[in-house]
Amino acid sequence: MLIDTHCHLDFPPLVDHLEQYLTAASTAGVRRWIVPGVHPGAWELIARLCEQFEGLCPAFGIHPRHAAEGSDRHLIVLEQLALQGVAIGETGLDRHCGNLPLQEDLFRRQIRIAVSCQLPLLIHCRDMIGRTLEILHDEQAGQVGGLMHAYSGSVESAREFIKLGFAISLGETLMRRNAVRPLRLARELPLSWLVMETDAPDAGPHAERSARNRPEMLPGIAGELAGIREKAVGEVVLETGKTALRVIPKLETYPCR
Ligand SMILES: [Zn+2]
């Protein structure tokens, strides 16, 4: 099954023409989307969209960029809301988002919620690989695992995350001509630990702003991965889909109304 493990369908311009974007993606074969929360103000909209549109699965969390918005009150709300989602996130550490002690505190508190609710984690990690690994170990995040969204670290570090039960999520960076590191990840990591994402409408840390990322681009990423692995696209879709369902088990049963 073609699953987009990270897609901000609550962000403009996607949210303004959601039906149109989802139809295009469905036509291209995408069946499930994880819609990660980035700050408390977005949680209600995400919950509503995921009730309204089939195949959308919510996750609630606070992105390191919004660490300042993570008050005690919001963490209590997150605790109450957590089980309505398929995962906790996105959360993590980002060297380029300032106030690292605050980011770390919020990251740890979200991991604790994930562990107490037995929900996997969607991790955002930019240039903070070592510290992220340390904290995941420290907080025993291996009990729940999850995925490393838009992973940009080395193959060696990726293997450490995998040991902890975190799948490696690859996206549009695979489609860039000069993508040396993503190519290595795609080639060398076990396919049983890879998942795919568009991260739409964001286009990753180094993308050209002009190339607007859309949910229907997922099959292109699958095609790229298949080419690198010298496998049929169908096989890559099947394997990465199985991996996504294994690390985020509620993807299979959501919505459980
Ligand atoms: Zn994101």
Task: Describe what this molecule looks like in 3D.
This protein has helices at residues 18-27, 43-52, 72-81, 100-117, 129-138, 155-163, 180-188, 218-229, 233-247, 250-253; strands spanning 2-4, 30-36, 56-60, 87-94, 121-126, 146-149, 166-170, 194-196. It has a single domain, classed as TIM Barrel (Alpha-Beta Barrel). The protein has an eight-stranded parallel beta sheet with strand order 1-2-3-4-5-6-7-8. Helix 8 crosses helix 9. Helix content is 42%, strand content 16%. With 257 residues, the protein is of the alpha/beta class. The longest helix is centred in the middle third of the chain and has 18 residues, at 100-117. The chain binds zinc ion (ZN). Residues 6, 8, 36, 90, 199 line the site of zinc ion.
List the helices and strands and how they pair.
Elements lengths: L1 E3 L13 H10 L2 E7 L6 H10 L3 E5 L11 H10 L5 E8 L5 H18 L3 E6 L2 H10 L7 E4 L5 H9 L2 E5 L9 H9 L5 E3 L21 H12 L3 H15 L2 H4 L4
Parallel strand pairs: 1-2, 2-3, 3-4, 4-5, 5-6, 6-7, 7-8
Helix pairs in contact: 8-9
Zinc ion binds next to loops.
Quick summary:
With 257 residues, this protein is an alpha/beta fold.
